[in-house]
Design brief:
five-stranded mixed β-sheet, alpha+beta, 38% strand, four-stranded antiparallel β-sheet
């Protein structure tokens, strides 16, 4: 009986934590209706690029993104033989800069980012491969304060015969996303 009560308490705590993370990722809080915030939103909407290219900035929600480079064809990532991962197909490494252009901290979630091929098939990052390749990456569970930016490499495992054509970058799971032609 004690085990059941402990299990029930842990389940409730886990649910609360998950809801807090989802609320944080969605931006949380009430939207401001002040004239200054309305102007800020209008300016963000006007400066958003519909489709950017490598080296150009684009915006989605509270983040400004820049894909700095993409490298495909790697079969293994990791710092050594004990911490490495082998691709099912090929790894594509996307070097990315993310800047918080909002007015409060925001978490960057690598799982919300996508690569697409010319047929529109979507590929998600491989979290383990991204973590093993993280010698020079600050993107894993990054909390970014206003005005700050982080840079890192997201690792995608895609079939060997595929070529990614577009990156779709999101400030949260619920955002519309910004596209970058690769």
């Amino acid at each position: 009986m004690k085990w059941f009560k402990r299990h029930k308490i842990l389940t409730v705590i886990l649910i609360v934590v998950v809801l807090a993370v989802v609320a944080s990722a969605a931006g949380g809080g009430k939207p401001s209706t002040s004239p200054a915030s309305s102007t800020k939103k209008a300016n963000v909407a006007r400066t958003t690029n519909p489709v950017a290219r490598i080296g150009e900035t684009t915006r989605d929600g509270k983040f400004e993104f820049m894909v700095k480079a993409i490298e495909c064809g790697k079969t293994v990532v990791g710092p050594n033989q004990y911490l490495q991962k082998t691709a099912q197909g090929q790894y594509c490494l996307v070097t990315l800069n993310i800047k918080n252009i909002g007015d409060r901290q925001q978490y960057f979630s690598e799982g919300d980012q996508k690569l697409l091929n010319s047929a529109g098939q979507q590929y998600s990052p491989d979290s383990t491969a991204t973590l093993y390749n993280s010698d020079n990456s600050d993107t894993f569970l990054a909390q970014i304060n206003p005005g700050n930016s982080v840079e890192g490499v997201l690792v995608f495992d895609i079939p060997k015969d595929q070529i990614p054509t577009t990156a779709e970058l999101h400030d949260s799971s619920f955002s519309g996303g910004a596209k970058v032609t690769l």
